[in-house]
Specification:
By secondary structure, this protein is α+β, with helices and mostly antiparallel strands. The chain is 62% helix and 16% strand. The protein has helices at 3-6, 14-20, 30-40, 42-63, 122-189, 195-230, 258-279, 327-394, 399-433, and strands at residues 26-28, 68-77, 83-87, 98-102, 107-120, 238-240, 284-298, 305-319. Strands 2-5-7-8 form a four-stranded antiparallel β-sheet, with no helix packed on it. It has a two-stranded parallel ribbon with strand order 1-6. Strands 3-4 form a two-stranded antiparallel sheet.
């Protein structure tokens, strides 16, 4: 994945980011939360940096194919001149005898520019190809991180929506409990109800208040976690869109998941590494050359001098490994076994994904039907509660009947919220397993 494609969303969310830091609470949709996280989430930022690192490594591998120049210079002062053994036969002496002799001057200066360039190196070319594949893997890892961020933010957002509605249900129940308490107080004043009945309603009211504080605290915690994943400061004011939107009949086309795509690219990388090992047994050819000067100096009287002489050469070097033991053979066998495991992994992931997608789809269908049933139960429980309150006012029903109806209503509300959560999570899992999770954006 190239840098341009990674940062292509930056301009699309620039206006949103300005709004997000407003002092007033901003109501953000799920899509806006995800867009904000695309820029500020630190895990995504690190993943983008990893992509850039692999791109630089790819360029580094390509740079090894370019010509190279090196400037070398050195100065040496010989306190003792190098000693050579000269055969005395050169000067008419007996054969097989030698005489020590010292050559040269104490001051030696060398400076040259060296040139080298690979003409043919199969192993080096294979390394370049492997670096490209590794860069692709890094891009997939970025997508994996992005999908996980989308999944986590969506889960938190759904939880926040459910907690919001749970607070509304509690507020509605508090209104009902308050009316019932006022009614019981009035009946108690007219000696038509016992003080214990009033206490029961008061206890229920206190329980609802405690439950409200608990749900409110959980709602704030979820929002704080959501801000953390979005990469926003904790003090940022944030609110969510309370309307739960979902299409109960939405179906998703099966796409290749990141796990399968990564395994396939890993197979290409293993094949490239196998070729690199095989290519190490091929000859390599390179061009080299050097151009410079050598200087010699003498600082003793009567003949003091410093003289420089040009030195240059060019050549072609052939390197061919003849025997390297059995190391290469064992390395090749290792890569072959790794390739076999990779093929098995691709097959395993494909079969596993098909099974998981089907299970997620069936789980979502069950949760959808449960949510529909739960909504009907809330309506029915509300009707029963209203009827019991009316009958209690008329004296044809007792307080116990009203409290039981109230508990039934609250249980129906909580059951409905649980089924909504189950549906949203199942739908989210279905999208993730089928490779459609980015459709949330």
């Amino acid at each position: 994945m190239k840098l341009v494609s990674i940062y292509k969303q930056t301009l699309l969310v620039a206006l949103l980011l300005l709004v997000s830091y407003s002092s007033e609470a901003q109501q953000l949709t799920l899509e806006q939360c995800i867009d904000t996280a695309q820029i500020h989430n630190k895990s995504l930022q690190m993943s983008r940096n990893n992509v850039l690192i692999l791109e630089q490594k790819e360029k580094e591998a390509k740079a090894n194919l370019l010509p190279k120049l090196a400037l070398n210079a050195d100065y040496r002062y010989f306190t003792d001149q190098p000693t050579q053994l000269m055969p005395q036969s050169v000067f008419g002496g007996p054969t097989g005898t030698f005489k020590e002799a010292q050559f040269g001057v104490p001051h030696n200066i060398n400076a040259n520019i060296q040139f080298s360039m690979p003409l043919y190196n199969a192993q080096l070319n294979s390394t370049v190809e492997n670096s490209k594949i590794a860069s692709e893997l890094s891009g997939l890892q970025y997508q994996r991180t992005a999908e996980q961020v989308i999944y986590d933010i969506s889960t938190l957002y759904y939880n926040a929506q459910v907690l919001y509605h749970q607070q509304n249900f509690i507020d509605s129940n508090l209104v009902n409990a308050g009316k019932l308490l006022r009614n019981m107080n009035l009946l108690h004043e007219h000696l038509l109800a016992k003080s214990s009945d009033v206490s029961k309603v008061q206890l229920q009211l206190e329980q609802l208040n405690i439950q409200k504080e608990t749900v409110k605290s959980r709602y704030v915690q979820v929002l704080n976690t959501l801000k953390f994943l979005m990469g926003l400061p904790l003090e940022t004011q944030l609110s969510i869109d309370p309307k739960i939107r979902y299409d109960i009949n939405q179906e998703y086309s099966g796409l290749s998941t990141l796990d399968i795509r990564q395994a396939k690219i890993q197979s290409r990388l293993l094949s490239g590494e196998l070729n690199t090992i095989k290519y190490s047994r091929l000859p390599s050819l390179s061009l080299f050359g050097s151009q410079g000067t050598s200087g010699f100096g003498y600082d003793k009287k009567p003949d003091q001098f410093v003289k420089f002489f040009p030195l240059g050469f060019a050549g072609i070097q052939l390197s061919y490994p003849i025997f390297q033991g059995t190391v290469m053979k064992h390395k090749i066998n290792q890569k072959k076994y790794e390739l076999q495991n990779n093929e098995l992994q691709i097959s395993l992931l494909t079969e596993q994904n098909l099974m998981q997608v089907e299970n997620a789809r069936m789980l979502r269908n069950v949760a959808r039907k449960s949510a529909e049933t739960g909504l009907m139960q809330i309506r029915l429980a509300q009707i029963i509660y209203d009827q019991n309150v009316m009958q209690q006012k008329e004296g044809t029903a007792g307080l116990t009947d009203v409290l039981l109806a109230d508990n039934s209503l609250r249980e129906a509300q909580q059951s409905y919220l649980n089924t909504v959560v189950d549906y949203l999570k199942a739908d989210l899992e279905y999208k993730k397993l089928s490779g459609n999770i980015k459709s949330l954006k």
